[in-house]
């Protein structure tokens, strides 16, 4: 299995050579092309170490070789800030002054502008889509940032739907739900597990459970005018 | 540039040269580098969020140190300080020592800004809807105490514009491209009512020097700076009066501008 596939499967549950993996690749390419960036990438969050791991790159074959699987500590830079604020961040990497920025940009070793959009699943960050340019004087606009925010949201949705589907398929085979990451996810998993147990081998109960949940929902809304 | 635009800039520039009352401005953000030469002597007090068992709390820290690891708050503070020479900055860092924040930390920081008596509270960070009820309560309390909240619209608004920018009890800010830090636009309909320069803005970098940033985060402090000028000249201004003045000074957004993409 290729390095990027291992990373995607380990941290996002996206299997290699699936339509979900292709969709994520498409979004990384689309974003890079829209922003006219030399490099685009998808980094996924390793919640155990609080690091981001390069899972996909686009635009530069050399970067693909060197970056995939590389880990980035989350506490610094625009990518880290995108995670901490759950917001798209766009700008120049922080350098001490403009002369240094120009010099390093001209050398081609450091990007002159970076765009980072967090991928969210139910408001939890699971990764970041990034774009980078190395051309001196180039910057990303608010329109680029807004577009990246939208494709990052779609990428998050792809992963979310895949994870939900995998959980349901797993349960269908009599398995247990995968470990939840947040308290909200644990509670959701508990509710799903109880419904599955309650209706296992008794499909006629499903309609009654659905009616019961609808009644609880109506109670929560209170009296309607 | 139209005559009206020139007049708008002249007005704020005139205010900037006038004798103004000092105004306390809270920067609820990633911290501020008070050692940056452009901010030396401008930070009046500083706090940092400390994670707690139940909820985070704020601890007072030195006001003469680099309290910012990301550079976001320093950039925001630098914009306010450059526009409003009368702004006295209150640095309220809502990221912990691991650079992690969240809704609870932002709520704690917002509360600290109010308790510290900030006249203006700059929120270049947005919360998700989960925290909307608590933020709404804080904004209402701020309104009654005549503490003005200036809040950024989310850069990636999908289901909402982010909170507290959705509330009418604060001044909410979108981004636009403009060469002038004094340029603002009035947006109709609400909830996001104003836009200011926030694209490829030259900002202060934590640790020294400058860099360039784009986003609503950097448009918001431009409006905060303009409010600091107005409040410095007319200290008793209420929120609705400030909004009226900002609308008066504003130009209409360019025709056909897509408010949702910012393009």
> What composes the largest sheet of chain B?
9 strands, mixed
CATH-defined topology of chain B: Rossmann fold
Largest interface: A-B, 40 and 41 residues
- Output the CATH homologous superfamily of chain B: Peptidase S8/S53 domain
Which strand order spans the largest sheet of chain A, edge to edge or round the barrel?
A: 3-2-1-6-5-4
Helix content of chain A: 40-55%
CATH class of chain B, anyone? Alpha Beta
Shape of chain A: elongated
Per CATH, the superfamily of the largest domain in chain A is GAF domain
* CATH topological fold name of the largest domain in chain A: Beta-Lactamase
Strand content of chain B: 15-25%
Number of domains of chain A: 2
Number of strands of chain B: 11
Q: What order do the helices and strands of chain A follow?
A: HHEEHEHEHEEHHH
Question: How do the strands and helices of this protein lay out in sequence?
Answer:
The complex is a heterodimer of chains A (225) and B (263).
Chain A: H1 3-12, H2 19-34, E1 39-46, E2 51-58, H3 61-67, E3 71-73, H4 77-85, E4 89-91, H5 98-107, E5 113-121, E6 124-133, H6 142-172, H7 183-199, H8 205-221
Helix pairs in contact in A: 2-6
Chain B: H1 3-17, E1 23-29, E2 43-50, E3 57-61, H2 72-83, E4 87-93, H3 103-115, E5 120-123, H4 132-144, E6 148-152, E7 171-176, E8 184-186, E9 194-197, E10 201-204, E11 210-214, H5 216-233, H6 239-249
Helix pairs in contact in B: 2-5, 3-4
Molecular structure report:
The complex is a heterodimer of chains A (about 220) and B (about 260). With about 220 residues, chain A is an alpha+beta fold. Chain A has helices at about 5-10, 20-35, 60-65, 75-85, 100-105, 140-170, 185-200, 205-220; strands at about 40-45, 50-60, 70-75, 90, 115-120, 125-135. Chain A has two domains: about 5-165, 2-Layer Sandwich (Beta-Lactamase), CATH 3.30.450.40; about 180-220. Chain A has a six-stranded antiparallel sheet, sandwiched between helices. In chain A, helix 2 runs antiparallel to helix 6. The radius of gyration of chain A is 21 Å and the shape is elongated. The N and C termini of chain A lie far apart (about 60 Å). The model of chain A is unreliable at about 95-110 (pLDDT under 50). Chain B is globular. Chain B has a single domain, classed as Peptidase S8/S53 domain (Rossmann fold, 3-Layer(aba) Sandwich). Chain B has helices spanning about 5-15, 70-85, 105-115, 130-145, 215-235, 240-250; strands spanning about 25-30, 45-50, 55-60, 85-95, 120-125, 150, 170-175, 185, 195, 200-205, 210-215. Chain B is an alpha/beta fold and about 260 residues long. The interface of A and B includes residues 93, 95, 113, 123 and 152 of A. Strand 4 (about 90) of chain A pairs antiparallel with strand 11 (about 210-215) of chain B, so a sheet runs across the interface.
């Amino acid at each position: 299995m290729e390095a990027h596939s291992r990373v995607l499967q380990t941290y996002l549950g996206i299997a290699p050579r699936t339509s979900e993996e292709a969709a994520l690749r498409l979004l990384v390419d689309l974003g890079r092309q829209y922003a006219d960036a030399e490099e685009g990438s998808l980094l996924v969050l390793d919640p155990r170490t609080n690091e981001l791991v390069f899972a996909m790159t686009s635009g530069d074959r050399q970067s693909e070789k060197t970056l995939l699987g590389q880990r980035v500590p989350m506490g610094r830079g625009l990518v880290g800030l995108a995670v901490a604020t759950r917001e798209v961040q766009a700008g120049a990497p922080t350098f001490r002054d403009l002369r240094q920025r120009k010099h390093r940009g001209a050398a081609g070793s450091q990007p002159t502008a970076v765009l980072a959009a967090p991928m969210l699943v139910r408001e939890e960050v699971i990764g970041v889509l990034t774009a980078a340019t190395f051309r001196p004087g180039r910057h990303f606009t608010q329109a680029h940032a807004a577009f990246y925010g939208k494709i990052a949201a779609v990428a998050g949705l792809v992963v979310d739907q895949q994870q939900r589907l995998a959980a349901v398929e797993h349960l269908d085979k009599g398995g247990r739900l995968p470990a939840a990451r947040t308290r909200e996810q644990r509670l959701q998993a508990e509710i799903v597990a109880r419904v599955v147990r309650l209706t296992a081998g008794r499909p006629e109960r499903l309609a009654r459970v659905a009616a019961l949940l609808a009644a609880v929902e109506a109670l929560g809304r209170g009296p309607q005018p | 540039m139209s005559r009206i635009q020139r007049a708008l800039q002249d007005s704020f520039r005139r205010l900037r040269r006038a004798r103004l009352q000092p105004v306390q401005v809270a920067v609820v953000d990633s911290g501020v580098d008070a050692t940056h030469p452009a901010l030396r002597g401008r930070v009046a007090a500083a706090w940092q969020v400390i994670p707690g068992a139940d909820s985070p709390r704020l601890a007072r820290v030195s006001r003469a140190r680099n309290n910012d690891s990301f550079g976001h708050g320093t950039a925001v503070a630098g914009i306010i300080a450059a526009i409003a020479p009368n702004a006295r900055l209150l640095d309220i860092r809502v990221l912990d020592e691991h650079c992690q924040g969240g809704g609870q930390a932002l709520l704690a920081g917002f509360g600290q800004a109010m308790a510290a008596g900030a006249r203006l509270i700059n929120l270049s960070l947005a919360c998700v809807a989960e925290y909307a009820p608590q933020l709404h309560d804080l904004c209402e309390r701020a309104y009654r105490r005549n503490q003005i909240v200036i809040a950024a619209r989310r850069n990636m608004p999908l289901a909402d514009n982010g909170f507290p920018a959705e509330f009418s009890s604060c001044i909410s800010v979108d981004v636009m491209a403009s060469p002038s830090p004094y340029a603002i636009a009035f947006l109709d309909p609400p909830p996001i009512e104003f836009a200011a320069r926030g694209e490829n803005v030259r900002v202060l970098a934590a640790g020294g020097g400058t860099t360039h940033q784009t986003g609503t985060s950097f448009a918001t402090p431009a409006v905060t700076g303009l409010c600091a000028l107005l409040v410095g000249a007319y200290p008793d201004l209420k929120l609705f009066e400030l909004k009226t003045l900002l609308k008066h000074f504003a130009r209409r957004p360019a025709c056909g501008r897509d408010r949702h993409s910012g393009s």
